[in-house]
Amino acid sequence: MDNASLSRKPPQASELVADEIPEAVRDHPYPEAGQSQSKKKGLIWKLLGLAALACGVSIWLHLNFNLFSATSQAEQTQQNPASVSSASPSVASPATNSKAGTAAATPDNLLGHLPYPEAPAKDLVGVTPDGSVKLRTSAAAKYQEMANAAAASGIYFAPISGFRSLEDQQHVFFDVKAERRQNASKRAEVSAPPGYSEHHTGYAIDIGDGSAPDTNLSPSFENTQAFKWLEANAVAFSFEMSFPKNNRQGVSYEPWHWRFVGDKQSLETFYKAHSMNK
User: Quick check: pTM over 0.70?
Assistant: First the structure.
């Protein structure tokens, strides 16, 4: 054995152990503790991620639940407006809105007829000598002008019916229906149920021809001189036929039934009621 070999010292145990430990592990003085810390950090991030996801899902469900609820209510209102209006205390019925002077703001209709309030008694004046046929003041004044203009042409109107109360309409609809043995739908073709008659407003009037009383309240009134005059001239006095042939309400043709639409209140009374029922 040469002197170099003898002079070389054997490797220390600590040197052998250090060489056998992988470099990546040797960088940390406590390898197991490093792995544990790393796992804890990973778990924390996972928990934070799950919490954020749960929060996002909760917000999404809240927003969409409200959206679906609102959409469902809107669809229900469109499909069945009567159920919504009946549940709302802000919508007045024809009987409770009698002082408003306009059609009740509700989309309801009954057997093709629209709801109307009663005119206040203080706003009614007679258009016949005995005062039995009454209209609202504005409508009465225009009716008299129209009747006078027709008389100047040798045509004489016979006013048959103007304002009718709920009680009057009760008789016209139910009592006459019973007398004629009509069912409700058949009766509604020629007469509105109580609360649904234009006569409640004080703006509607049934007109006959004084020279042909047998045509009163009959489709044959269209053959009279009075009707032909009305057809040509009534618009100049702000009167219009309520139920012409094939009217959208499905009410029978009534050439004798005319309504006044010559001021803001009367116009709103009828056209707001129609717009709510389109």
Answer: no
